[in-house]
Structures are given as structure tokens and as C-alpha cells.
């Protein structure tokens, strides 16, 4: 009996097994079809609602009240259709561009004109030849010309680069400025197409330049060589300015381009130059040698180059000197340490005391455990816990006296008996 029941159960399971899978497939298909129908209905409703509102390109009033006002204005723009008794076709009226004045277009035109006027006012010249005096003492002006939006083409003469190489050796303020100018030029040349270096063949002959208003006793042959090379470069740029700006679209109203030689207006004073650098003056136990002036310093003064440029017919653009900001103190140093560093270390015995001396003077030294609380141990005459040898004490006293001369023995040298 049990075997018969198990056999019947197995046959029923076999019959239900293949029937359950088609039912699930049919159910999933029905659900998918219902979902697609629902999506289609939603899309149809959204399309119909958009068509009823009207397909306008610009809708600036999202609120319902403003939409109603705008739609009311649109309905008023279209006159109602009149029925013709003769049965003719009604005439349709079309809106023209006169009904909507182009206000936005007028504003855009005005903005473009204002921007063009600003660029014209910012431009100092079409081509600017920079002297070494500007690179050293007015490097901020070169940064201004190198900004995006400017139109000046800046030419750096080869002689200006040679002057920077001669000035950047040493630790003086002038050498630091020359090194700064060299770094800025290295970063701009080759990256900024308007900052260029003089080509090898971009010069005119010195003998072909006419001079005027030469003082008595002064000839063109007496001009220094470094001034000649800079002026020859500026004269060549003035004669071939169209080649430098051929990539840009020149206006027909300006057939001649303006070429200027940028020179420092007045040479800065050496004292002011040191003060503007902001270098802290630290006390040194050994007197430092007096700073020697660089023999190439007149090259970056700008006085001689401006005089000879005016005599040769080159237009000069005077640039004022810019002061470099003083270096700021490091942020990780406390204020008390900064003050101590500025005033220097103390002189005499106060600056040579060890931490043990300070602790004993303040009464925070170690106590002898073998003594009674009321007794005090004998302290060395030097004030420290450890007694120093007499030779060390004598040497410290000799060093403390600035008038005495201390002789230091070389290795292997002996004192005379």
C-alpha cells in the first residue's frame, strides 16, 4: 500500500513539474506587457500636455500665474478669425521680427565694443624691446605684459641676457634680482608666444644709424659696445615691426606699428635697494668686508641707454622701478624665538652659561640625600655642580675679554718654555 502511494505521488510531481514553468513564463509576459502599456500611456499624456501648452523656445516664467499671463498675451497677439460670407478662405496673419525688438542683441554689441576699447587702452605699444635695466629693477612690468589678454610683443635683446649672466653672480641684492629675472624669462620664453628673444640676424649696422643732437666732443664711436647692440636691435625691430606682428590681424586704420624701447626711468639708490630687499641685518662677531660694487652695475642703470636711444631716433618708454616685497618670517618659528634671533645672542658670561648653571641659580638643583634638610652642601666656585679645571676657567676668562688676543696652536706646535 505504501509503495502504491509513493508511486502515485511521484507521478503527480512529474505532471506538476513541467506545468509550473510555462505558468511562470506566461505570468512574466503578462506583467511585462502591462508595464509597457503603462509606459506608453504616460508618454502619450506627457506629449499631449506639452502640445497643449505650446512649444515656445524661451520660457522665462515658470510660475502658473506668469504662464497664464504669457499665454494671454500670446492669444492677444493673434487676432480672432472672421468668417467671410462669400465662403472664401480666411487670411492668416504672421508675426514679424518688428513685434519683438532684439534687445539682447543690442546689449551684446555694446559689450563687445567696451571690451575692445579696454584692450586698446591697456596696450602700451605693438612691439616693446626690453632693456636689462627693466628686467633687473622692474620685472613686475614684464609680468604685466606677459598676462593673458595683452597684445604687446616683447623682444628681449641678446645683450640683455648677457648682462643678466654678468650680474647674477654673488649674494648681493642686485645678483638676486638678476637671477629672478633669468628664471622668469626661462619660464616665459618658448611658452608665451609674445615673449621672444632677439634672433641672431635681427640687427642693423651701427654705422647706418643716423644720430642727432650729439654733444660737443662726443662721437658715435665713443658709445660702449653693449649700448650699441641694444640700440641696433631696437632699430631693426622698428624697421621690421610687421614681421613680428604678422600673425595678428592689423587694422587698416593703423598702417604703422609702434615700437618702443623700455628703459628704467631712474636708477634706484643702493641704500634703498638694500632696504627694499628686506634682508635682516644680523650681528656678526667677525667684521664682514665692505660690499664691493659690481663693475657691470652701470649696465642696468638705464641712464646711458636712454640717452643714446633718444639720439638714434628710437622712441623710449620709461618704466619706474618696482620694490620687491620683504621676505616673511617662517611660520613655524614662535614669536619669542624671532625676537631673540633679531636681537642676536647675548654677550659675556650670560650667553655662555650652561643649563646646569641656570638650574643652580634658580634653586632647582639636585639635593644631597646624605645632608639634613637644614644643611646645604658646598658648591663649586664656578656655580655649577661639576667643578671646571683651572685651565678651562682661565681660557673662558681670556675669551670673555675682547682686548686680549688668544693664540690658537696648530697641530704639533709647542709653546716656548
From TrEMBL:
Give the compositionally biased regions (Polar residues): 45-54, 83-95
What are the start and end residues of every segment in region (Disordered)?
A: 45-103, 275-298, 319-389
Comp. bias (Basic and acidic residues): 339-360
Q: Which Gene3D superfamilies match?
A: 5'-nuclease
Q: Which residues form the PIN domain?
A: 128-203
Pfam families given in the database record: PIN_4 (PF13638)
Which InterPro entries does the entry link to?
PIN_dom (IPR002716), RNA3'_term_phos_cycl-like_CS (IPR020719)
Annotated protein name in UniProt: PIN domain-containing protein
